Amino acid sequence: MGERYAESKSTAAFSAADTYTLHGALDALGGLRGLDALDLACGYGYNTRLLARGGARRTVGVDVCEEMIRLARAHEATKGRPDVEYLVADAAGLPDLGPFDLATAAYVFSYAPDRRTLHAMFRSVRANLRAGGRLLAIVPNAGAFPRVDWSPYGVRILDRVRDGDAPLLKAHLLTEPPVPFEFREWAHSDLAEAAVEAGFTTVGWQPNRTPPADSVRDEAYWTAYRAWPISSLMTCTA
Question: Shortest CA distance to 139 belongs to which of 203, 185, 201?
């Protein structure tokens, strides 16, 4: 599972768009030099390393999955980067790790099983940020399934199940073989409500950006994605 997840992050088009969007947001903030950065649901460390390479003073990645953290630490060991920390922790109940100037979160809020946990996640993040700190969160856009097929971009949604506080979406990462996963389809209004309740002073949204066309993914390839992107960037200020 961990290796297939790593493959999807390095090859899937939706992941390339997420990374390009996050790069743009970090550039707009003036970069990372001298900042302390926290990466939530870090997986095997893809975005964590992005923050470290950008010049963050301190970089910490956290994930609830011990196997993902093992993969992340093993990767750093082979690259000789002892300055990146990885910890096993639940985003809904983070220990006191900060304070940080910046937190990034790729799809972490989609795994909140209910509204109580969703609000706990935002409170936990806010507690680890300095006043004025920023949260940059990649979050799925609700409402596309079943009208939109994201298969060309690395994800196939199979079903939506009405359940609890938010619909449960069943999906595959289109690696070889495919990796099944599930996530909650929280509306942007639900996420904004949780952020404000947690004490964030501003909440905004930016559309997902696609990378420049190249020989593999030309302009025509990205046309359908721009019409119905998988995700948006949620920006919050503590």
Answer: 185
